Amino acid sequence: MFRHLDDPTLEIVAAATEFLTFGNFEWYASYSKIREATASERIQKEPVVAQEGHYPNGVYLVRSGFARLSEAYNNVERTVSYLGRGQIFGFEEAATNWKEKKDLPFQRSLRAVGYVDVLFVPTAILEQHVFPSLPASEFPPPYTRPVSRGWSPDSPDTKISTEMMEFIVEQRFINGTAAMIIDMDRCTRCDDCVRACAAAHDNNPRFLRHGPIEEGFMIANACMHCQDPVCMIGCPTGAIHRKSAHGHVVINDLTCIGCATCANSCPYSNIQMVTARNADGQPFYDKATNQPIQKAAKCDLCSTQITGPACANACPHDALVRMDMRSVDRLAQWMNKR
Q1: Is a pLDDT exceeding 70 seen at residue 65?
Q2: Left if phi > 0, otherwise alpha if psi is -120 to 50, otherwise beta: which for 173?
Q3: For the chain, where are the alpha helices, taking DSSP H only?
Q4: Every domain of the chain and the residues it spans
Q5: What is the 3-state secondary structure (H, E, C) of 106-136?
Q6: What is the pLDDT of residue 326?
Q7: Local structure of 169: helix, strand or coil
Q8: Is 259 exposed, middle or buried (0-12, 13-18, 19+ CB in 10 A)?
Q9: Residue 126 pLDDT more than 50?
Q10: Which of 89, 98, 114 is nearest to 32 (CA)?
Q11: How far lies 248's CA from each of 94, 116, 176, 227, in Å?
Q12: Cβ neighbours around 107 below 10 Å, total
């Protein structure tokens, strides 16, 4: 949207851009209570970033966190999709109004899920400095009906049901960059995935083939390598950390002191405290207390193996996938392959 602007114009746009924060950065502290509320209660508690039917006063660029995209349906609101870092809201309406001389309001509402940081660019600045020089190919197509960028409700292979979308957002699985999803209709409970994980980690599997199920799909209790990994907050030794630019979250066994801070912080119960054992399977004991030494353990996406996650590679029925939940299209295509 801005790459065609010269430096002086870009500086004008930047000076007029506002940094806004909605929601609570420490969302995980009240996460368990929020999950107990009804769907209507949860959505009403989410701070409104932009309201359906209101004048599109600008474009919102998501900097961090997550936002729910919803629309009015009878007397309630239903979730259409969700937005994360790098995605935008309001561009279609603002651009359409300028190009086609319309008065189109926001077609959907945007709400903070937990928290969301956005960069807000006012419509007046866009109309004066951005739209006049924007290439015609980068304008949205002529308006026909609400369409969220990157997601089309008219395309059968990219459609996720309202119930599934609500489930993903309410459980905050939108945070995962490598969530483990199991198609329970394909899964034969052979446990090849668990055995493969154990073989890759000295006979100590790093996940449980267990978790919440919606429409026949299970989100297993395996580390999702979150975009916002709250498990890293408070680790006294820095044992839990991001391994690479890909964002994979791993635990250094040598520096883990077994304090369980990360396990207690994980909102999804995907980190387990296990007894450290030697190659013969015998536990290590603390010399001071004579008690077995506990260490935090979780999925590391088989980061030391060239082939990647052993669990997905071992499934003989293509029932298991590691999914970046930010890619709604890819998620929908996988779910609709039945």
Answers
A1: yes
A2: alpha
A3: 7-16, 31-36, 39-45, 91-100, 123-125, 162-170, 192-200, 261-265, 310-314, 328-335
A4: 7-153, 166-335
A5: CCCEEEEEEEEEEEEEEHHHHHHHHHHHCCH
A6: 85
A7: helix
A8: middle
A9: yes
A10: 114
A11: 37, 22, 11, 9
A12: 20
How would you write 139-157 as a 3-class SS string? CCCCCCCCCECCECCCCHH
Minimal CA–CA distance to 63: which of 116, 1, 115, 121? 116
Residue type, 169: V
Kindly give the pairing relationship between strand 88-89 and strand 213-214. Answer: unpaired
245: helix, coil or strand?
A: coil
Question: What's the pLDDT score for residue 127?
Answer: 96
Tell me 199's DSSP state. Answer: H
Q: Using alpha carbons, list the distances in angstroms from residue 217 to 149, 160, 214, 236.
A: 25, 12, 5, 36
Give mean pLDDT, residues 296-313: 89
Cβ atoms 296, 271 nearer than 8 A: yes
For Cα atoms 42, 44, 50, give the angle at the middle one, nearest 5 degrees. Answer: 120
pLDDT band at 29 (very low <50, low <70, confident <90, very high): low
Q: pLDDT (tens digit, 9 = 90+) per residue, 260-297?
A: 999 999 989 899 998 887 767 788 898 888 889 899 99
Check whether 54 has a pLDDT greater than 90: yes
CATH top-level class of 7-153: mainly beta
Tokens of residue 93, six digits: 């309406």
Q: For residue 99, is pLDDT > 50?
A: yes
pLDDT at 315 over 50: yes
CATH architecture of the domain 166-335 equals: 2-Layer Sandwich (3.30)
- Mean pLDDT, to the nearest integer, of 156-166? 75
Residues 270 and 211: their CA atoms lie apart, in Å, by 10
pTM, 2 dp = 0.78
